[in-house]
């Protein structure tokens, strides 16, 4: 798969490659299991939403894909919310799911790491910074740091599991933000603006500032006030 088609799509969209790239995804088995394919399905749904008039031709050209892959395309078409998608699904399937309004993926609960991947794919397809803000919201779970590693030593209650999951999501969000701000200039700028905006919780702000400090230590500096235990975050202008 040409990762750049997806990862930087928002910056340089090429919808004309949709059929070619979906075939490549199919060959690699990415679309065969809709539950695991949800991030990719999300990306495709946003491309469809931006190009609804192309959808009938795309789906006709992909009609020979395996049925499991076509199911993933059905889901992408449905999630797009495009009127052309609704018409196509009405002809293809009687699944009652597609009679329902598709969910707003930017409003869904982040209940596991896969939803972080969903939001990243949403961002890659659209450049929509609200998706990034939702990812940053997971940094609130910094208070649960270490819970995943220590889970086996706990009583393994429901709350212990919940804390371990929150820690896993926190670490996934922190790692992915740190990895991607180096590659996406708009993302780096946005995260810097967020830290200085006053719109973040203390945990979100501290954790995001630590991400930026690790990526750009000449610009960002994070210290803990020994008297108040509060984070002191400063930014050096270049």
In a few lines, what is going on in this structure?
This protein is mostly helical and about 240 residues long. The protein has helices at about 5, 20-25, 35-50, 55-60, 65-80, 85-90, 115-125, 130-135, 160-180, 185-195, 200-215, and strands spanning about 220-225, 230-235. A hairpin with a 6-residue loop joins strand 1 (about 220-225) and strand 2.
Describe the structure.
- The structure is a single chain.
- The chain has a two-stranded antiparallel ribbon with strand order 1-2.
- α10 packs across α11.
- It is globular, with a radius of gyration of 20 Å.
- With about 240 residues, the protein is mainly α.
- It folds into two domains: about 5-100, no CATH class; about 140-235, no CATH class.
- About 60% of the residues lie in helices and about 5% in strands.
- It contains eleven helices and two strands.
- It has helices at about 5, 20-25, 35-50, 55-60, 65-80, 85-90, 115-125, 130-135, 160-180, 185-195, 200-215, and strands at about 220-225, 230-235.
Which descriptors would you attach to this protein?
238 residues; mainly alpha; two-stranded antiparallel sheet; 11 helices; 4% strand
Enumerate the strands of the largest sheet in spatial order, edge to edge or round the barrel. 1-2
Terminal CA distance reads 38 Å
Share of helical residues: 55-70%
Secondary structure tally: strands = 2
User: What share of residues are in beta strands?
Assistant: under 5%
Q: Nearest-angstrom radius of gyration?
A: 20 Å
- Number of structurally distinct domains: 2
Average pLDDT for all residues = 92
Count of individual helical segments: 11
Q: What order do the helices and strands follow?
A: HHHHHHHHHHHEE
Q: Which sheet architecture does the biggest sheet show?
A: 2 strands, antiparallel
| Unreliable segments of 5+ consecutive residues | none
Shape: globular
């Amino acid at each position: 798969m040409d990762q750049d088609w997806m990862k930087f799509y928002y910056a340089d969209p090429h919808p004309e490659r949709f059929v070619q790239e979906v075939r490549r995804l199919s060959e690699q088995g990415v679309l065969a299991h809709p539950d695991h394919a949800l991030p990719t399905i999300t990306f495709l749904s946003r491309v469809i939403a931006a190009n609804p008039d192309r959808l009938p031709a795309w789906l006709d050209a992909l009609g020979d894909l395996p049925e499991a892959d076509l199911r993933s395309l059905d889901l992408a078409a449905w999630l797009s919310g495009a009127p052309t998608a609704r018409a196509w699904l009405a002809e293809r399937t009687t699944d009652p799911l597609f009679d329902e309004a598709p969910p707003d993926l930017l409003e869904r609960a982040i209940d596991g790491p896969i939803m972080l991947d969903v939001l990243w794919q949403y961002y890659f397809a659209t450049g929509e910074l609200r998706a990034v803000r939702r990812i940053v919201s997971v940094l609130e779970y910094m208070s649960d740091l270490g819970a995943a590693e220590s889970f086996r030593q706990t009583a393994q209650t429901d709350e212990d599991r919940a804390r371990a999951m929150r820690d896993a999501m926190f670490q996934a969000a922190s790692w992915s933000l740190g990895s991607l701000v180096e590659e996406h200039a708009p993302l780096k700028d946005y995260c810097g603006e967020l830290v200085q905006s006053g719109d973040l919780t203390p945990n979100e702000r501290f954790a995001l500032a630590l991400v930026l400090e690790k990526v750009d230590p000449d610009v960002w500096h994070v210290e803990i006030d020994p008297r108040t235990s509060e984070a002191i975050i400063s930014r050096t202008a270049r």
